[in-house]
Amino acid sequence: MSTNVLEVQDLQTHLHLRRGVVKAVNQVSFSIAYGETLGLIGESGSGKTMTGLSLLGLLPRPAGRIVGGSIRLNGRELSQLNQATYAAQIRGKEIAMISQDPMTSLNPVFSIGSQVAAPIRRHRHDTDQTALALATEELHRVRVPSPALRISHFPHQFSGGMRQRVIAAMATACRPNLLIADEPTSALDVTIQVQLMDLLDQLQDESGAGLLFITHDLGVAASLCDRVAVMYAGSVVETAAVTDLYAAPAHPYTRGLLASVPRIGIKTERGRLFSIPGTPPDPLDLPMGCAFAPRCDLVKDRCHRESPPLIDKGGREIACFEVQ
Amino acid sequence: MARYLFSRLWQGLIAILGAVLIVFIAQRLAGDPLALLLPMDASEADFEALRVELGLDQPLLVQFFRFLQSVLVGDFGYSYQWQTPALDLILDRLPATLELAVAGLLFAIVLAIPLGVFSALYQDSWVDRVAKVFAMLGQAIPSFWIGLLLILFFAVTLNWLPAYGRGNLSHLVLPAIALGWYPVAAMTRTLRSAMLDILQSDYIRMARSVGLSERAIIWKYALRNAAVPLATMIGVYFANMLGGAFVVEVVFAWPGVGRTVVEAVFNRDFPVVQAGVILSAVVFVLVNLLVDLSYGLIDPRIRHGR
Q: Which chain A residue lies closest to B305 (C-alpha atoms)?
């Protein structure tokens, strides 16, 4: 096989904090095919961003460490790679990231042109002039108006939406096979969000890259993703094609999550918004067995003793004893 | 940028005017120069005659405006002691002081940049601690004492470098270290905390995520951002060095402005003191103007007036 650009198997990432060890990513497995968009959704603190940073080799140092599992990009194992190799051969070239906040993700004291040209110079070993010319083309590709003029401008002269385009140009300049977008739309106006999502779609169509789209916004995930992986307390609880998941969520957490989305025109009991009872577990002290068990309405004794594995069930994967 | 510079220039002029006023008042409080200028057995009439000749019999306000007028045309009068124009006396010494201050500043910067960057990179490690102790030593030990120790060790015991006077580059080394060690601590700490902030920032994570080398990220992308607070520090301490160099000038027998002014103070040689202090104020303002200009060069947001 291996039309998959990325295969993540039993990935375990720990954060060694002064107060204890956080199992930020706990036995996570998923794969992404070329041209496919996988949504990674979950609440804040569920381990989405740490999963993304694990793939990029950019875990917070010295606290974060990959302690188990494998990350295979085109069959190449990444989890044991050292930082220098990661920087020279993987980041920006094979995997790139579009970050969360466009207002703070560009260096304020360097021109847009030099920032977009930097990865080109680094990975293609072009001269400064060639790299700058290519950077201009990249800005044109992400539809920044009058790019030849704009390359000499600085980040503060760009709007949030335009900065996000610049970031997209910088990330995709060397045509990575995998693009990670970490909440790229959450800091933008809704109209700009739509434009950016169109742009991501276009960039992906052009390059055929896989896209890992990290978000807490179920609506954005529904409109952009082919498949969705739902994370809870560091683990993937359900993976399914996006239409299947939204039509018939299987895992109790996924059902609760979708039921929490307020809908216009649909009155709930006593006119209140639905929420899952209880709170997410303390990441320093995860419960035995299934992490969702304390909040689950289908909970059985076994759920408190063993953690359910992610099992394939008719085209989707679910980690729950009751639903399996 | 032009408006920003204009306002800075205006502030500088007011600062110089303030310096002129303070010098003028301090002079009147310091004692009667006539007692110094005239022989012990001079008569009351001799005193009166000289007082009129020097204009010291006029009301203070008149004296001040006369003083201001002459300052504006660069006329600070003749040194009572040497009988040469006071301004020339100071201008003769100014290059030596500037040379010493610039050398001290270079020493401080060359030391503070690696110390600050590495103590940020290896936060709380032994590198950080050694850097801190080294920098604190310079701040804790008075410069004249550092100067004496340097002379004792490098000039007397090892006989590597000259102990006093101005001449070639080797004469500059010891006084520059004695003068430049003091600001190393403040510069290192400023740079360290700026770098710590910047290395956590989103744009550094972005630079890492496209695979830029750690060397480029630290020494180019991060350091340029840290340069603004560092430039402020450099401006403040450079001005301090110009003013405070006299201790080092005395220890190393360096023929600078500071030493000349101190001697003039002891001899109540008013014109020389006035010229020295006011010229120092002018240099101070010019240095700060240069620092303000450098902000614009470093940070485009300041250049574009945001």
A: A156
